[in-house]
């Protein structure tokens, strides 16, 4: 049976027809919703809502106005757009409330905490370097000097500075777990 015929049977309460219709339309509905909503969990939820709405409102389908699949996908698109708008509005409300209360946004606080933890982690790893390695790495990466400028500043041959840098960066990478 085609979707149009199945939808007419579903409108009459035929559960077997709904199972068959579900099999035909659930994939396209999920695909459309996923493209609009983007989040997998939200997309699954919206798809379930659409299919439940399909069962409840099948009697509203008018075959003279288009195909069953078009009607179902229209329901899905509207529901997905509603979900996106609702999520956006909720985010905007939270931002307005945070501004009104004079509090930083949640994401900003999280980023500041994470950055502080990362700085502390790097600081501990720098402390594990030899003094000469730490001095070379600090001049190059924190003060912005080139290897040649570090060599001039420390009155050392360029090769020595490169060796210190390589060894220091290798130890930092090991300490940071390969993140660096």
Automatic annotation (TrEMBL):
This protein's superkingdom? Bacteria
Q: Name one GO molecular function term.
A: DNA binding
What are the record keywords, sorted? Sigma factor, Transcription, Transcription regulation
Where the record annotates domain RNA polymerase sigma-70 region, the positions are 26-88
> An example of a Gene Ontology BP annotation on this entry?
DNA-templated transcription initiation
Key word Acyltransferase present in the record?
A: no
Domain RNA polymerase sigma factor 70 region 4 type span(s) in chain numbering = 119-172
Q: Sorted alphabetically, which NCBIfam families does this protein's record hold?
A: PRK09646.1 (NF007228), sigma70-ECF (TIGR02937)
Report the family membership. Answer: Belongs to the sigma-70 factor family. ECF subfamily.
Please state what the protein is called. RNA polymerase sigma factor SigK
Q: Which organism is it from?
A: Streptomyces spiralis
